[in-house]
Q: What sequence folds into this?
């Protein structure tokens, strides 16, 4: 009898954990949908304000980061539209060479963004930004792993 109760408790807790993961995925999807409906400038403004709160940016730094975030948001919008057009025009999956080229562009953009941001921020702010970004990236990866395991 005791073993049956333990098994039921374990099964119930496993179901609860899965439900929480599912809700988190829904929340992420809703947030992504909301952001995709905003103009690139609006997304850049929100990102800049969040960075300003987290990193205690000066007014001069805010203006620089705003310009940098607007440039990045426009680039991301262009990439998203290009991918969408390619997906709609082609029924086959993109080739390995195309995926490599696209991933290379994304990494080049991220490197450029990081270098420009490093010029705008002081050392302490930059290290805090790196820590926040690493935590965010790991959280997203974790959510994706949980979503795929179902």
A:
């Amino acid at each position: 009898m005791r073993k049956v109760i333990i098994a039921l408790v374990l099964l119930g807790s496993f179901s609860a954990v899965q439900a929480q993961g599912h809700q988190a995925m829904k929340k992420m999807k809703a947030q992504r949908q909301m952001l995709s409906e905003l103009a690139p400038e609006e997304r850049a403004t929100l990102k800049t304000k969040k960075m300003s709160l987290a990193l205690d940016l000066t007014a001069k730094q805010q203006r620089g980061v705003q310009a940098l975030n607007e440039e990045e948001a426009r680039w991301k919008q262009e990439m998203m539209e290009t991918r969408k057009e390619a997906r709609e025009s082609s029924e086959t999956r993109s080739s390995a060479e195309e995926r490599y080229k696209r991933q290379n562009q994304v990494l080049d953009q991220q490197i450029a963004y990081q270098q420009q941001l490093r010029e705008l921020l002081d050392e302490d702010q930059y290290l805090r930004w790196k820590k926040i970004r690493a935590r965010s990236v790991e959280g997203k990866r974790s959510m994706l792993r949980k979503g795929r395991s179902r």
Remarks:
- The helical segments are 2-36, 40-55, 59-89, 96-120, 123-148.
- The mean pLDDT is 84.
- Residues 75 and 109 are 9 Å apart (CA to CA).
- The two ends are 30 Å apart (CA to CA).
